[in-house]
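Preliminary data (for renewal application), 1,6-di-O-phosphono-beta-D-glucopyranose complex.
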Amino acid sequence: MNKKAFIFDLDGVIVDTAKYHFLAWKKLANSIGVDFTEHQNEQLKGVSRVKSLEKILSWGNKSISEDEFMELMALKNDDYLAYIKKMDETEILPDVDRVLTFLIENDQKIALGSASKNARMILQKVNILDKFESIVDGNDVSKAKPNPEVFLNAAKNLNCNAKDCIVFEDSVAGVKAANIASMISIGIGDKETLKEADYVFNDFSEISNEFLTNLINEKRT
Ligand code: B16
Ligand code: MG
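Predicted structure:
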């Protein structure tokens, strides 16, 4: 059996934490007199915490001191963590567990590649932390997606060549990062939005065990 590395993004792939990011960013933006819509929230998917606050401030034409910036980031994260603390395994997105179990039973390598600094805590809350051989998150990288650093680090940790890695991503930046790294990119979400991906599915329930077997056996040069 071939050994491939399957690298999972977190938010939008394993769990839908975007709804909690939205509530926390909205509260924060409104508290400084800035409007914040769901459409704007879409543009923060896969974007780091620092970059997200920079975007919100620019949308609201606000400029603040560095100290205030740090304070607002901490406030947003405290609020976000209050939602995360209530999470449990019922929040794992459909069929993620089936796919993880299938890959583990077939002796494949599994990693997480996320921009979130809260990734470990979230995996712990939904009780799947032990399924990941390597976790690369926002604490480990200096360059945000579409820079491929996060996925290349995961490949290195798993001792796998980039061509033997398959990335599941819900963000455009993440799909680009996987493509730049010469990995197979699988978009989870809208076909048009994620058209740069090698494959796109609405969610994991559309990904069959047969499709996964083909990925495992595929030889790429
Ligand atoms: P945190 P992913 C990303 O997670 C989210 O999509 C993005 O909205 C968030 O700003 C970023 O993590 C940082 O999260 O504030 O928890 O460090 O999709 O890369 O798993
Ligand atoms: Mg994501």
